[in-house]
Amino acid sequence: MTAHSPVGLNPAQFKATIVNEQLGTFANNDLVHHDPTGADHELFSEGLRKSLFNYMHGICFDFPLQDWFDFKVPRTTVAPDFIQKAIDENDFESSSPHAKVYWIGGPAIVRYFTKKKKNQTFEMAELTFFNKKGNLSVQLPQVEGKWMFEHLPELSVSSNQSVTFAELGKSFEEQTGNDFILFWNGTSMKHLRENGLLML
Questions:
Q1: 3-class secondary structure, 192
Q2: Considering the domain boundaries, does residue 113 fall inside one?
């Protein structure tokens, strides 16, 4: 059981219990637990140890899953070219750091709210833009939405200053602590780029 896996986050759902709830002094990744379903987890230990060791050394990527274990294991359901396809389908927009960023869409209003999902709460922001095509709404984590809302005026074509992609990225990362490239290529920003957020 690992701390951030589905079973680690919600052990009761998997009929498991965490034996030691005390946080480790350095990290709390592997959790000692009790599994009443009778699964023999130790059976997989050696195969996982060997495969991880080889992975960390960048070798044996082409080994079949079965080769790591001395007992029969189910076939993997992940296609061999899964990662390559994900890379090929990547629609990240490459951007020049010197490109100017402009917003030619309509004005926006912002609404802050709390979203609950799987016993977790997230502080969110919804930006709604009004234009002739109809209203467009995007939702972002609150810190990102607030940053976007505050920077829209300086991106307007009517602003007497221009902002480069690099300047925008630096401002975003300094104020939010998040990765600007991931933000820029996220779903919400893709919607804005399709509706008036331009780079020239």
A1: helix
A2: yes
Inter-residue contact 93 to 180 (CB < 8 Å): no
- 74 and 108 both lie in a single domain: no
Residue 166 lies in a domain: yes
pTM of the model: 0.55
pLDDT in tens, 138-156: 999 999 999 999 999 999 9
- 1 within domain boundaries: no
Residues 6+ apart with CB under 8 A from 161: 154
Q: What is the pLDDT of residue 75?
A: 83
Q: What is the mean pLDDT of residues 23-37?
A: 72
Closest CA to 71 of 100, 97, 47, 102: 47
Q: Sort strands 136-141 and 108-117 into parallel, antiparallel or unpaired.
A: unpaired
- Burial tier of 187 (Cβ tally within 10 Å: 0-12, 13-18, 19+): exposed
Residue 6 or residue 100, greater confidence: 100
Q: How far apart are CA 135 and CA 107, in angstroms?
A: 10
DSSP reduced 3-state for 161: coil
Indicate the number of domains in the chain. Answer: 2
Residue 165 belongs to what domain range?
Answer: 100-199
User: Nearest-CA neighbor of 31 among 5, 4, 11, 2?
Assistant: 2
